[in-house]
Inverse folding.
């Protein structure tokens, strides 16, 4: 994270005061849950979301389970006020078992709701041009260049803005009224998502669309200003959890490309506030290592202990298998797993064959703490760039402490990987003594994600050990890195490969300075570009995930059908082509 120091003087007192206030602040928006089995904090949802869950439940009973997408119903917008919609809903004629006829329910939905997705409208990005100047100069193969331009053009297809009606009457919508134009992932994901946005921005930067990239950051910062953190997505029902914290990485990448100091200065207070959120009481855990040194690390922890509104029919189906006293805790684990972005994976399960054994809040994730280390390094660098040396020094010190913690708690020298750490006492209130047996020895792609952070990819001895470990791990397949070695049917498991995981591991290897590591990075990137290209030629679409065992095959599994679009896949392909290019004589087919 190297910056040239700004020569301009700056008054940093206000930022220092802001930082001090954040360090002593407590989250007054949290309320304790009344449940004895799950005493953690809960953020209430809106009356509209609660009502739409009732509509969702009735639709499930009426239309049946086949091809049912529960998210559709909590994305509906009201045509009239909530009170009228509720009264009409309660008056729907029901049979003895409570069911409503398909005709009556369809008629009701058509009368009282706008279609899902009508709360956003198409908006062509102003900085889009069909072939940007200096676009992917390392791509020499004309077939690959033509395809890359098609992927580039998909930014137009995914560009939206919040409708004027949503801004005028936000109470009729679950979509949050973001101020700027947005890029959505695609398909059923009709709104902005947090960590998706990082790879969308990387692709936009490759496409020379700097203004659109900045608009995405502005939207995410507006969520911090309103809620105190970046929400999982821009819907009211996501207001109780976040996603992997990559906002500072977005700001840093934009600053690197543009040199826009005013943009960096404007973003810095929000980045500091987000750092405070991820180090708040619900997220932080204290570990005492084998040398009796105390470390503070972070975990995922959603502020919710009910079924997720966007998937409540699914959550309740699983919860029906467990005792009532355990349900609130189970629902919190489900929501906390969704906060991880890895929803779902055997990575978070005590019993890999039993979904109800999710235990995400009892796990310290290696990758989450690497992301927060990156956040601390980014804030330190950005503050230094704008001349705020006190904040820079504070976060540099924080990054040094977290780097030491990551090396102490997660690093396993025998395996050459960073292993998630399972908490033994099940509480975050007391310090826990580190034990080697609590490291999860199973192989996941996340075990290699810390290499993405400069603190680790700049360590040449460590890089060589991690590279060799990756090569022997079983994760490397013909066209990408598998998410795990377990074929569970969950989408964040084998044989699925995901664009973000490919990118972080490849970029860490490529930036290390090791020729062997860069060669491996290029091999992985070539395979990934190839499978994306072949799948695109077969289906005329970019996909959310891919099967890394078969070139040109998209992924599956999980709680919804495979999606197309697709924001982060587009961004990673463009980023790989920008970094590695494609020689004229290299075949793009499988």
């Amino acid at each position: 994270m190297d910056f040239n120091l700004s020569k301009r003087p700056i008054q940093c007192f206000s930022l220092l005061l802001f930082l001090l206030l954040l360090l002593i602040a407590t989250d007054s928006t949290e309320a304790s849950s009344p449940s004895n089995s799950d005493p953690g904090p809960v953020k209430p949802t809106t009356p509209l979301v609660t009502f739409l869950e009732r509509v969702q439940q009735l639709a499930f009973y009426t239309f049946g389970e086949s091809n049912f997408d529960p998210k559709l119903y909590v994305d509906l917008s009201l045509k009239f006020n909530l009170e009228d919609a509720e009264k009409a809903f309660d008056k729907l004629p029901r049979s003895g078992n409570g069911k409503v006829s398909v005709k009556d329910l369809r008629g009701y939905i058509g009368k009282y709701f706008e279609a899902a997705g009508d709360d956003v409208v198409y908006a062509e990005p102003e900085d889009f041009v069909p072939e940007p100047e200096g676009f992917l100069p390392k791509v020499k193969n004309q077939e690959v260049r033509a395809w890359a331009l098609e992927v580039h053009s998909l930014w137009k297809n995914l560009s939206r803005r919040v409708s004027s009606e949503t801004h005028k009457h936000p109470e009729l919508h679950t979509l949050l009224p973001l101020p700027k134009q947005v890029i959505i992932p695609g398909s059923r994901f009709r709104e902005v998502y947090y960590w998706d946005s990082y790879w969308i921005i990387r692709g936009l930067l490759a496409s020379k669309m700097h203004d659109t990239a900045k608009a995405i950051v502005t939207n995410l910062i507006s969520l911090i200003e309103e809620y105190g953190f970046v929400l999982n997505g821009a819907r009211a029902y996501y207001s109780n959890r976040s996603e992997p914290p990559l906002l500072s990485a977005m700001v840093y990448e934009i600053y690197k490309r543009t040199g826009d100091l005013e943009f960096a200065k404007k973003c810095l207070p929000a980045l500091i506030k987000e750092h405070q959120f991820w180090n708040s009481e619900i997220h932080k855990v204290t570990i005492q290592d084998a040398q009796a040194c105390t470390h503070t690390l972070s975990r995922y922890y959603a502020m919710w202990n009910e079924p997720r509104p966007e998937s409540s029919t699914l959550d309740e189906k699983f919860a029906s298998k467990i005792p009532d006293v355990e349900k609130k805790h189970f629902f919190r684990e489900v929501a906390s797993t969704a906060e991880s972005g890895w929803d779902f994976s055997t990575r978070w399960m005590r019993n890999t064959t039993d979904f109800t054994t999710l235990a995400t809040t009892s796990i310290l994730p290696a990758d989450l703490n690497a992301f927060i280390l990156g956040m601390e390094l980014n804030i330190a660098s950005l503050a230094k760039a704008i001349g705020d040396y006190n904040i820079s020094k504070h976060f540099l010190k924080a990054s040094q402490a977290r780097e030491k913690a990551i090396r102490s708690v997660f690093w396993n020298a025998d395996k050459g990987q960073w292993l998630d750490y399972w908490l033994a006492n099940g509480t975050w209130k007391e310090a826990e003594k580190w034990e080697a047996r609590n490291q999860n020895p199973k192989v996941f792609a996340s075990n290699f994600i810390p290499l993405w952070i400069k603190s680790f990819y700049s360590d040449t001895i460590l890089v060589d050990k991690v590279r060799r470990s990756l090569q022997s791990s079983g994760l490397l397949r013909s066209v990408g890195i598998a998410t795990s070695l377990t074929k569970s049917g969950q989408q964040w498991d084998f044989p699925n490969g995901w664009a973000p995981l490919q990118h972080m591991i490849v970029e860490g290897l490529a930036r290390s300075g090791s020729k062997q590591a860069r060669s491996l990075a290029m091999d992985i990137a070539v395979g990934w570009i190839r499978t994306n290209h072949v799948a695109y030629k077969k289906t005329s679409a970019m996909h959310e995930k891919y099967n890394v065992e078969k070139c040109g095959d998209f992924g599956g599994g999980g709680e919804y059908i495979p999606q197309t679009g697709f924001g982060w896949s587009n961004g990673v392909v463009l980023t790989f082509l920008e970094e590695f290019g494609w020689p004229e004589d290299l075949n793009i087919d499988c």
In short: The chain has a mean pLDDT of 93. The chain is about 45% helix and 10% strand. Residues 213 and 435 are 43 Å apart (CA to CA). Residues 515-539 form the longest helix (25 residues).
